[in-house]
């Protein structure tokens, strides 16, 4: 018997999540080539963390 982890629906969700993360990561990686943009993004992320 397979562990719960291998429930087909959970595998599908994991694949979808991975694809979403890739879509998010690639633009961030491209932005990181522009230092000023990266600083602005990092400041914005820090501000969002403070709000939580």
Notes on the structure:
By secondary structure, the chain is an all-alpha fold. It has one domain. The protein contains 2 helices and no strands. It is elongated. The termini are far apart. The mean pLDDT is 75.
Q: DSSP helix count?
A: 2
Low-confidence stretches: none
* Number of separate strands: 0
**Helix/strand order:** HH
Cα-atom Rg, whole angstroms? 17 Å
Global geometry: elongated
Task: Give the mean pLDDT.
Answer: 75
Q: What is the percent of helical residues?
A: over 70%
Strand content: under 5%
The termini sit apart by 41 Å
Instruction: Quickly count the domains.
Output: 1
Question: How many strands, which pairing sense, and closed or not: the largest β-sheet?
Answer: none
Please tag this protein with its features.
52 residues, mainly alpha
């Amino acid at each position: 018997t397979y562990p719960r982890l291998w429930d087909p629906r959970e595998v599908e969700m994991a694949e979808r999540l991975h694809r979403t993360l890739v879509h998010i990561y690639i633009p961030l990686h491209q932005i990181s080539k522009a230092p000023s943009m990266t600083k602005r993004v990092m400041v914005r992320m820090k501000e969002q963390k403070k709000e939580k």
